[in-house]
Specification:
With about 260 residues, the protein is α/β, with parallel strands linked by helices. Helices cover about 20% and strands about 30% of the residues. The strands form 4 sheets. The protein has a 6-stranded mixed β-sheet, with helices on one face. It has a 6-stranded mixed β-sheet with strand order 7-8-9-10-12-11, covered by helices on one side. The N and C termini lie far apart (about 45 Å).
Length: about 260
């Protein structure tokens, strides 16, 4: 395709600790992220923006130092949103300056990005407050000629996994009410569920993405770890609203040794 396109890479659920060998479910999250970034750089050496869709740290404010070390020299914007394991005060402080942008909106060419905050203090589930819904409505209304990509941390549709669906977005109907009022929404993208999935609703592509560390087993009613390796998502966004996207799984051998997945 010869028309202008944006190349975006999404990394999600990094779950970093301050300790370089900190592990989540048996996966050392920093080496796992480093392997994922290296793989993405090989495949997509010059993206137009990066998206980090929440749970950048695992309840450990000192983990943001690694985010700054790994992404702080990015020549392109690094758009971030919080997840349930983020530490908001430390996150705001760590990501206050370019290349980082926490929440808000951005335009690139014919595309509008809206980053939503579904963080709900003390809860694994999420909720979009009225202020975020109003901000989304205003952004979509202000850019009727832009194709919109909307992202949030929590899943707004059931993932056919009983335990995960108890920690989803609490008010998806309110989100879809807004999206349904605007013809320019093309993509709704999230993290949180540590697995790859793709769907469509009212012509909007629904996407979620594996974690850069441990994965959850799709379709499992009870909590279960999937032995799949780390992953990331790439998106090509075309000027006419067209989308190409895919998930890349990273060679597990290049990531941390997962010696104890039950850990
Ligand atoms: Fe999460």
């Amino acid at each position: 395709m010869s028309q202008a396109q944006l190349r975006i890479v999404q990394f999600t659920d990094l779950h970093l600790y301050g300790a370089v060998d900190g592990q989540l479910r048996g996966v050392a999250t920093l080496p796992s992220l480093e392997a994922t970034l290296a793989a993405a750089r090989r495949e997509l050496p010059a993206p137009d923006a990066l998206l980090l869709t929440g749970d950048l740290v695992q309840d450990d404010a000192s983990g943001y130092a690694h985010v700054r070390a790994l992404f702080g020299a990015s020549p392109v914007p690094v758009y971030c949103i919080p997840g349930n394991h983020d530490e908001l005060g430390a996150m705001r402080a760590a990501l206050a300056a370019r290349p980082f942008q926490l929440g808000g909106t951005a335009t690139h060419g014919q595309w509008l990005f809206v980053m939503l905050d579904s963080y709900l203090h003390g809860m694994a589930a999420g909720r979009l407050p009225e202020s975020e819904l109003e901000r989304l409505e205003a952004a979509l209304a202000a850019h009727p000629d832009h194709h919109a990509l909307v992202c949030l941390h929590h899943h707004p549709v059931p993932m056919a996994s009983r335990w995960l669906d108890t920690v989803s977005l609490e008010n998806p109907a309110a989100l879809f009410d807004v999206l349904d009022r605007h013809a320019n929404v093309r993509v709704l993208l999230w993290g949180h569920v540590h697995q790859a999935w793709e769907g469509t609703r009212n012509g909007v592509k629904l996407l979620c993405t594996p974690s850069t560390c441990a994965q959850f087993k799709p379709g499992s009613d009870n909590f279960a770890i999937d032995r799949r390796p780390p992953g990331y998502r790439w998106l090509r966004l075309f000027g006419d609203g067209g989308i190409e996207t895919g998930v890349e799984w990273v060679d597990a051998a290049a990531a941390a040794p997962a010696q104890s997945l039950a850990g």
